[in-house]
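Supplementary Methods, section 5.1.

A reviewer requested that the exact input to the structure prediction be made available. We therefore reproduce it here, unchanged from the version used in the analyses.
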Amino acid sequence: MHHRRSIRLPGYDYRGARAYFVTICTAQRQCLFGEVEGERVVLSPAGTIAHEEWLQTASVRQNVGLDLFVIMPNHLHGIIVLTEGGVGVWRRQTPTDDEFKAEYAKPIPGSLGTILGAYKSKTTRRVNLLLQTEGSIWQRNYWERVIRDERELNAIRQYILANPARWQDDEHHPSRNR
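The structure derived from this sequence is encoded token-by-token as follows.
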């Protein structure tokens, strides 16, 4: 049986009241959400859904705040802030592989993964209805970074703001070799 290696920080509590920088990519990096014209993203109807559902993520959850984000043709970059649930901390002892699998195999209410999973599910449902397709529109996982300080937060904000202007050089651009 193939085991995927988690990219999450072992032992970190992703329910913690912190800011997180996330990137979520579409399946096979399909450009479903629009196109970049100059330094601006022009959203397609599917991109509009992705935008609306991202905003909805904060509207329906009292512990979620949103900072800057951008919907790109085939991915989303955003800063999501969890505002309740204590401070995210590492455990004193790293769990064994079996403990890690048992603990992280199921959704944890209020965690970053559960929140992003709900976003991906709602977006997929609406986009599939729009396009009359089936299956997930998203890659299986997502990338995240715990934002550690104000300097890092500001650097990430600049990255998000500049992302459309750098689209041709973006690692997610369809012309890049994989």
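The CA atoms of residues 68 and 79 lie 6 Å apart. These observations are discussed further in the main text.
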